[in-house]
Amino acid sequence: MQEDVFKIQVIVNKQSICVYVNDQVIYEKIGTVAERTHAGMHVVVLHPTGGHVKLARQFLTHQPAEDRNLAACLESLMPGNILVVAAVPDAVMFLGPDAVALLEEMGASRIRHLARHETWVMVAHTPTRVQRPPRYHYPLRRPNVTAPGTPLGRVWGEGVSTRRPGRVGPSASLDFDVFVPRFLAVQCEWHQDETLREQREFCERYDGYVRLCNCQDPITSNFRHSAEKINIREVIPLAMLTAIKPFNFYRQLLNLLETPGASQTPILVLVDGYQQEIVHLTKLFKLDVLVHRPQGEKGSATLLNMHFRFSVHNVFNFFPEAKKAIVLEDDLLLSPDFLS
Fold it and tell me: Were 238 and a residue from 137, 259, 281, 326 both cysteine, which residue would form a disulfide, CB within 3.0 to 4.6 Å?
């Protein structure tokens, strides 16, 4: 039985959330009573055959507008993977209708009825659905929130810990166990193309890159030179600064490569610390990348300042003919006339 299934356990309490696969910790967030840094909505995606983590993200949905990030993440998932979603108490304070509709599309039956201090967990397989047109911005759909959405995913288990009437504070802890059978991963026709082997391996390892991994017309390295050309009087190189958020970098990268003039602009990616996912993604688009060894204490201004210094210094070393450069942090979205 152990060869045919994954044993998935999720434990949520006042101080932590922990996800186990076959009794091994694969995701953990620990807070304190005063600073509940584990709060919010947690999304973990596992490979359906190998069981390795393809995506792990936390969304602070007790803060306004963070549910847009959650909705964008759910829309970016490939079909057929194992999805673990957990709502720590306070997760539904600003959980908007877009995120609720998408969770119900995944198979959730209790999320719209969850109260502020209650805990909820679901394990499902991500559904196959019609891909929507790509966007520059967050989802802005207006689903019908008067009735639950139609579930498309295959749910293997769902649990909720509710509050007693009149009780103050969070609900009791939730200890959730489920067995999920192993499935073969989705196979696309382009997986047989040997020239796209690195892209296939990337999509096997990571999730959240639906435009890159989609079975129908995925973007490839040719996307680097697909932008509309503009009249350029001076070639100004562009430095993309990133660190630990590949989803921000990926969103900005596609945004940039679709901007008129991008195909004529030299691009250098500068990563603060070796992040295999970002480096692998950068090489898929045949972009130059430099990795900076972090300097300074975690969370300090020194760490960020030293990365800026490294980036400004190296962009002019890398492009010695340049007299000026554009420096971008990865949490920005660009207007269509940005380069012009």
Answer: 326
Contact 41, 217 (CB under 8 A): no
Same domain, 118 and 246: no
Report the distance separating Cα 171 and Cα 89, nearest Å: 8
Residue 180 has pLDDT above 80, yes or no: yes
The alpha carbon dihedral of 198, 201, 205, 209 has a sign of: positive
Task: Name the domain boundary from 119, 154, 181.
Answer: 181
Q: What letters, b where the CB count within 10 A reaches 16 and e where it falls short, cover 97-130?
A: bbbbbbbbbbbbebbbebeebbbbbbbbbbbeee
pLDDT at res. 135: 46
* pLDDT level of residue 327 (50, 70, 90 thresholds): very high
What number of helices (H) and strands (E) belong to the chain? 7, 13
User: In this structure, what are the phi and psi dihedrals at residue 277, rounded to the nearest 5 degrees?
Assistant: -60, -45
Taking the C-alpha atoms of residue 43 and residue 339, their distance in angstroms, rounded to an integer, is 35
Q: Which of 121, 110, 160 is nearest to 20 (CA)?
A: 121
Structure-token pair, residue 169: 């504070």
pTM of the predicted model as reported, rounded to 2 decimal places:
0.85
Distance of CA 24 to the CA centre of its chain: 22
Same domain? 122 vs 227:
no
Residue 143 shares a structural domain with residue 241: no
Total count of domains within the chain: 2
Contact 10, 86 (CB under 8 A): yes
